[in-house]
Structure formats: C-alpha cells, structure tokens
Design goal:
It is built from 10 helices and 7 strands. The chain has 276 residues and is α/β, with parallel strands linked by helices.
C-alpha cells in the first residue's frame, strides 16, 4: 500500500489518531535523540556470535539468528538481550557448559566494547572537535525546544543503564527538558518501559491519546500502543543522522507506529500535526 504523507512533507501517517490531547511524552534516547551510541548493533552482533560459537567458525545461520534477535529487541534493556544470548549459547551447544556466562557477564563484555567509541565521541564534544548537532538526530534539538512549549510532561525511558543515559543526556545539553530520565537498573524487576507506561497512565489517570511515545525501536512503540497511546516512529539512518532507514521503517510499522518520520528536520510541521 502506498504511504500517506502530510502534504509537502516526509511525515508519514500510518494511522489516524485522536490529536490535541497529548499530556505526557515518553522519548527513547539512543537513535531517537542521541547518536553517541550509533553503531551499537555492529558491536553487539559480533559479541553475540563470539559468545555462541566460541572457537567454532560461525555459520551464516547463526549470524542471521543474532541479527534477527537484535532487530526485534531494539529498545529493550540490554540485560534482556543478554538473557536471549545465554539461551542461544546453550541451545547451540558450541561452547562448553562451564564457559557459558551469565547475562550480567555478557552485558559487561558488550558494554566495555561499546563504551570505547562512546567515550571517544564525548571527548570530541569536550574538545570542540565535534558539536552537539553532530551527535543528535537531525532536528531533534529544535523538536525538543518546540514540544517543551506545549503543556506536556516529558520523560526519557531508555534501555541503556540509567547513569549512562543521564550522563549522555547532560553532555548533549538536553537533560533539562525532561521531568525524569529513566534507564535500566541493576535489578530487571525494578524497571521496564512497559512498567513505566503503566505507572504514568495510572498515576495521572490518563486516557490513551494523552500519551505519546517517540522512539526508533519496536519495544517502546508496541508498549504504548498496547496501552492505547500514540506511537511516533523515528526511522532514521543513524550513520548519517538523518534520512530514512528503510528496514527500520518497516520494523516500526509492524510494531504499530501511527506516525513515521526519518528525523526531526520538519519539527514545526510535526508539532503542528500533533498539537492542532
């Protein structure tokens, strides 16, 4: 079916929603606002393949299985992805049982590798070699400025560890926009995106269209759709920081995205649509 766009824009309308009622806005962070962790999939995938295969040469089937797992779990807490990794390592049986690690141990290996490029990018910011615009999705700063003028409460709910996402939001100069910045905690029972959505809706006695989730992963969009809210998908090419990522767009459509954009470059038109 041919996509439907707002006139003269790249703002895709997948489902008509009840607009003008939004009071609470939940943002994913990595890939939605921040590009500091761009390329995390290229780090996680080899880690997973390595942990599954050990000294055995990986097959294309295992590589495909890992990529599919990462695709469908984008946005979820890293520890849950590492739980899946543990299950896959046991299921394939290529690594001796005493060499299969815990999800927390797998997460540490992955995080240690991921933080190398993240720290390098933060150093580029600190030195002035790069600007905040270099490490944010195009138009995100303008969009945050515009939506902050609306009568809404804004939050970040990220699958990244809480201390890290708070630090990175501060480094990008966006932390002050948010009433709360949530991220993964040591205990998986303490935090999940689904739990946050349920608690906000219950605490503020909200109806579905009063909640908007904005993210580039299927997890947060599916969770808010299950709660009757509005889902805005950011299908951005993270390597460039703007423009459509066709595979991400399809993934977000399958997750139930109501509205899709390649980035926030048309922030004014997007705000006018969401807040008529």
């Amino acid at each position: 079916m041919k996509p439907t766009y707002l006139p003269d824009t790249q703002i895709e309308i997948a489902n008509e929603v009840e607009r003008g009622k939004i009071r609470h806005v939940l943002f994913d962070f990595d890939g939605t606002i921040s590009l500091l962790r761009e390329g995390w999939q290229r780090i996680m995938a080899p880690v997973c393949v390595e942990m599954i295969c050990g000294d055995t040469a990986p097959t294309q089937a295992i590589i495909d299985e890992v990529n599919a797992m990462i695709d469908e779990t984008t946005g979820i807490q890293t520890i849950f992805q590492m739980q899946r990794l543990e299950e896959m390592a046991r299921a394939h049986g290529l690594v001796p049982e005493d060499k299969v690690l815990t999800p927390a141990e797998y997460k540490k290996i992955y995080n240690d590798r991921l933080m190398e490029p993240v720290r390098a990018r933060i150093a580029q910011l600190d030195s002035g070699e790069k600007t905040i615009e270099d490490f944010t999705v195009r138009g995100a700063l303008r969009f945050l400025e515009l939506i902050a003028r609306q009568d809404v409460a804004m939050y970040v709910f990220s699958g990244t560890d809480r201390d890290d996402v708070r630090n990175e939001a501060s480094r990008l100069g966006v932390a002050s926009y948010f009433k709360e910045i949530w991220g993964a905690l040591p205990s998986v029972e303490e935090y999940s995106k689904e739990k946050i959505i349920r608690e906000i809706i219950a605490e503020h006695r909200l109806e579905g269209p009063q909640v908007l989730a904005i993210g580039d992963g299927p997890v947060e969009l599916r969770n808010v759709k299950d709660a009757g809210g509005i889902a805005l998908g950011i299908a951005s090419d993270e390597a460039r920081g703007h423009g459509w990522d066709a595979s991400k767009r399809l993934r977000l459509l399958r997750a139930g995205a109501d509205i899709l954009v390649p980035d926030f470059s048309e922030a004014d038109a997007l705000i006018n649509y969401l807040f008529p």
